[in-house]
Write a structure and sequence with these properties.
Length: about 675
């Protein structure tokens, strides 16, 4: 009988519970073997909790969503206690208390309450990852427990124990950097005066005076003069430079809060934008997520977990079986034995079915990657003070697990660029006649034997003229060469190495960060990247991906005495071109096919194989990113499945080839990488 990980862990929990209660005599159990199952279950529960929390943010009164979060926390509490991970079980127990208080209407859902729950959730994710990688956790669980306890003990007095991210002027930034260089610790002090305070300036002056006794005020928001004149709403922020370790934040906070007409004071270590706090980075701003967005991925994958290494081994075995099948075919054709041919037909069918089953085992829905992004978009949008509606479609589309693992980082780069730089601020959007709410869509669809994943935004778009200026300024292209580029070619410079700098990002509508990495990564396993952008209307980046990286359909071609394989995915058609229809432009050959100019590439030249060039040309027309070229070969011999084998460390740097395969007669041939030819 096969148990799910949850059932196994629950069974262990029941046994241990009986043992602890003294009810039965149980032989000592080694539960370390269940660590992997705990990790898998914990990640599933955290994913479900994350989705429910995001929905709950937009529908606070939905008890079903609240119960989903509660169930996930409860399940995680039980399994972590079973495994002896007390930090996780204690934190989830406190989260349960807060959720129960909300269910029983003792606590209202506010943005501050949700932020603390989200931050506690983030801590759980880190704790699980730490266990998974056998490393000591740096998460201060007690900090979260104390904050959660405050919520349930006295909800009315709950004050967020973090200060929102603040924007400093360049002068203030230099002052902070100078203080840090002199060895000072920077404390961030947020002071809130009572609403009916009549002399705000006086109270603020007393606070400033008290702080100056402890250290140097490095910066303030608003400026110190405005604060002392009472020119602020009900709160102000001060950055205090002090000797490291000389002041306890909690003690200073209590001391200042005791002053007349001071409602609250929060003191914590100041953290620059690009550094994470000791707990988790605070969030600011706001974002709007489509409720429908987060419905994707609610349904869990109903499957028995299989170690990916075992699947890889099985795929390799199937690959060898495919090779043996091809060899049997060759033998049957040469000997023309009826019984042998019938046997071969049976083996052929069985191998095809087996291959299909194995490949299906490796296929997983793209929602497993997609579901990581709604939370990221939410937090980034809040940090950037943008309003963004993030939608996902096609989460049920399946990809080979290996391909799916490869696209996570490229998608992260693309979506961050949409939020950080593609989508304008609400004010800029209104000024250009757009809705204040930006739209970002992540869409997956199936196209024959490929998958298309698109990242679409309705932001500023990529200005081709700015791209030309940027590439010239960086010295990557001359002005004359840049001006010869079409607008599409200029926009595609965004993928050029060397443009991934902060300066370029500001000059080209905020794009460029990591996009060369995206293109390189996707093309490394046979995918392609397609860019479409209109200034003022937005940008669409499409990733065209192979379903699998293990076995592909290919066309076998002969060049001289060598045989090569060309993936069918890249082939548009095969044509015979009379020699007189070939023209020269400079040193390049072209022809006209169906009214379109087609550049020709002779495989003989690429492979440095002698070519007589005295007959009509056999041309394989291939396409990549809407660009077509004709590969000139001697003969086209067959179409068959090929098992892609990596070429090893010595040959993996050779450009022009995606790998190698073994034919039925034992010959090793190279698989052409079309992406490096176009």
């Amino acid at each position: 009988m096969i148990h799910s990980s949850g059932a196994k862990l629950y069974l262990i929990y029941q046994i241990l519970h009986l043992k602890w209660q003294g009810g039965v005599d149980v032989v000592d159990l080694d539960i370390s073997e269940y660590k992997d199952e705990f990790i898998n279950e914990a990640k599933e529960e955290l994913q479900d909790m994350n989705e429910a929390l995001l929905d709950l943010e937009h529908d606070p009164g939905n008890m079903d969503l609240l119960n989903r979060v509660f169930r996930s926390a409860h399940t995680l509490k039980g399994s972590s206690a079973t495994m002896g991970y007390t930090n996780i079980s204690e934190l989830t127990h406190k989260m349960e208390n807060v959720l129960d208080a909300i269910r029983n209407q003792r606590l209202m859902i506010t943005s501050d309450v949700l932020d603390l729950i989200f931050e506690s959730f983030d801590a759980l994710e880190v704790l699980v990852e730490d266990i998974d990688h056998d490393r000591e956790s740096e998460i201060d669980v007690n900090w979260f427990i104390e904050r959660l306890n405050k919520l349930t003990e006295d909800p009315g007095k709950f004050v967020p124990d973090h200060i929102p991210h603040i924007e400093l002027t360049e002068v203030d930034k230099r002052a902070v950097d100078l203080a840090i260089s002199e060895g000072l610790e920077i404390l961030q002090v947020k002071v809130t005066v009572e609403e009916d305070c009549a002399l705000k300036g006086v109270r603020a002056f007393m606070v400033i005076k008290k702080l100056r006794e402890r250290g140097a005020i490095v910066a303030s928001i608003p400026q110190a003069e405005a604060i002392e004149n009472g020119e602020f709403e009900n709160e102000f922020i001060l950055l205090l430079g002090v000797k490291k370790g000389s002041i306890e934040c909690a003690k200073l906070s209590s001391e200042l809060a005791a002053m007349n007409e001071i409602a609250s004071v929060v003191v914590e270590e100041f953290v620059r934008e690009d550094v994470l706090s000791p707990h988790l980075h605070p969030r600011t701003g706001s974002s709007t997520l489509s409720a429908a967005t987060n419905k994707v991925g609610v349904e869990k994958v109903q499957s028995v977990r299989v170690n990916i290494d075992k699947l890889d081994a099985l795929v390799n075995l199937v690959g060898e079986l495919v090779i043996s099948k091809i060899r049997l075919k060759d033998l049957g054709a040469s000997h023309q034995l009826k019984d042998l041919e019938e046997t071969i037909a049976t083996v052929d069918r069985l191998v095809t079915d087996l291959k299909s089953e194995v490949m299906e085992m490796r296929m997983v829905p793209v929602r497993q990657i997609f579901n990581k992004f709604p939370r990221m978009v939410r937090d980034l949008a809040r940090k950037e003070e943008k309003v963004i509606n993030f939608e996902m479609e096609g989460g049920e589309i399946e990809l080979d697990r290996t391909v799916l693992d490869e696209i996570g980082e490229p998608l992260l780069h693309l979506i961050r660029n949409c939020v950080d730089h593609g989508i304008e601020s609400p004010d800029l959007r209104r000024a250009s006649g757009k809705s204040a709410e930006g739209q970002v869509r992540l869409v997956a669809s199936r196209e024959k034997n490929q998958v298309l994943i698109e990242v679409i935004d309705d932001g500023a778009g990529i200005d081709p003229e700015m791209m030309r200026d940027a590439v010239v300024k960086k010295g990557l292209m001359t002005r004359d060469d840049a001006e010869k580029l079409t607008d599409q070619e200029a926009q595609e410079l965004i993928f050029m190495p060397g443009l991934s700098t902060a300066e370029t990002v500001s000059e080209v509508s905020g794009r460029g960060v990591g996009l060369n990495v995206v293109k390189t990564k996707i093309e490394s396993f046979g995918g392609s990247v397609i860019l479409n952008s209109k200034v003022g209307e937005g940008t669409r980046v499409a990733l065209r991906l192979p379903l699998t990286m293990a076995i592909v359909q290919a066309m076998l071609v002969e060049v001289g005495d060598q045989t090569f394989a060309i993936p069918i995915n890249n082939i548009v058609e095969v044509a015979s071109i009379p020699l007189e229809d070939v023209s020269m432009i400079g040193s390049s050959e072209i022809t006209t096919l169906r009214g379109n100019v087609l550049p020709l590439i002779r495989m003989h030249d690429l492979m440095q194989i002698p070519d007589t060039r005295a007959k009509d040309l056999n041309v394989v027309v291939v396409e990549r990113n809407s660009k077509q070229v004709g590969l000139v070969v001697d003969n086209i011999t067959a179409q068959q499945e090929v098992v892609i084998k990596m070429m090893g460390s010595i040959l993996k740097g050779v450009k022009g080839f995606a790998g190698a395969t073994i034919l039925g007669d034992g010959r090793v041939i190279l698989i052409v990488d079309i992406g490096t030819l176009i």
